[in-house]
């Protein structure tokens, strides 16, 4: 079967695919249908957090698959309960709602913020987000996303979102003063917006404004979370305590799962019937996620930080945090990505930058080889 021809004929043309068919792999090595080997620095856009076919993750998934693959959320399952307990113990959050993706975890965060305000009869319903943010592709999360090119074709969009400039404290204060704000949602590192970190002063001001005005502090950790930045969650680098944290991508190690972590203020905001998901917290996905989160101890995260420092030492013009890195290049980023692929390295783009999101467990020798190839391509 000509996979590429069948794909083009039967799958909606929503992806500008590279001319590459991946057939298998192990760790940070993948193979195409011609048997060519590639070092993977994209990890499924930060989803394969411990690489491909990691044996610990694989065993956890297989064991659960042999017991029950799915049951509705009308019943209890051990993997979901264990994962929620672990996430709360590691973060200090109180409750977890499970979904299937980052967009869904952000939808839950938005609903929780709006219901929190509604329960208080506050009349507040506006959520502030940042320009150059990205929060998902549903209508509401597109509305929350602060990038104009996403605000085309699908209108009318969900009202109740105001965008402010990242790291602009005066713009933030003006938005809070002029709108009935119930929440401020932000990414600590704007991944799709160009891999740019927020300033600590700006984040501190957001936290202060939220605390003083009973506004919920909401952190989108879909891409930055689950060890990606060298901490369990990126907000830990800033010393803040969010009211709501959304996450997905690397949480499942390659399986679809999202989670919305609810702090003390909102732990009881979502009651029976106010939100739900057929597949959210699916036992197989939850078992895989538990195997990921249970490994993210200080030693593991220190290794992520060491690899990050190495990459930054090789690319002084890089931005980002941990193993979420954007590299400015004189050549067009897309051209660099294609040239690197020819030489056996897979990476991504973010705006005008080359984006690296390797597996957190990428071996040192493969990382150094891939970096050398990238440097050669860029020069």
Chart the SSEs and their pairings.
Blueprint: H1 3-10, E1 22-26, E2 29-32, E3 37-40, H2 43-46, H3 55-65, H4 78-91, E4 95-99, H5 102-119, E5 126-130, H6 139-144, E6 161-164, H7 169-178, E7 181-186, E8 189-190, E9 196-197, H8 200-213, E10 216-221, E11 244-247, E12 258-262, H9 283-293, H10 298-314, E13 318-321, E14 324-328, H11 333-342, E15 345-346, E16 348-350, E17 353-356, H12 364-378
Parallel strand pairs: 3-15, 5-6, 5-7, 7-10, 10-11
Antiparallel strand pairs: 1-2, 2-3, 4-12, 8-9, 11-12, 13-14, 14-17, 16-17
State the gist of this model:
The chain is globular. The chain is of the alpha/beta class and 379 residues long.
The percentage helix is: 25-40%
Q: What form results from the Cα inertia axes?
A: globular
The count of β-strands is 17
H and E string? HEEEHHHEHEHEHEEEHEEEHHEEHEEEH
- Secondary-structure-derived class: alpha/beta
Strand arrangement across the biggest beta sheet: 4-12-11-10-7-5-6
Major sheet details: 7 strands, mixed
Mean pLDDT score: 97
Whole-angstrom Rg: 21 Å
Strand portion, in percent?
Answer: 15-25%
Total DSSP helices: 12
- Could you list the spans in which at least 5 consecutive residues all have pLDDT below 50? none
Give the N-terminus to C-terminus distance in angstroms: 39 Å
What can you see in these coordinates?
By secondary structure, the chain is of the alpha/beta class. Helices cover 36% and strands 18% of the residues. The chain contains 12 helices and 17 strands. The strands form 4 sheets. It has a 7-stranded mixed β-sheet with strand order 4-12-11-10-7-5-6, with helices on both faces. A 4-stranded mixed β-sheet has the order 1-2-3-15. A 4-stranded antiparallel β-sheet has the order 13-14-17-16.
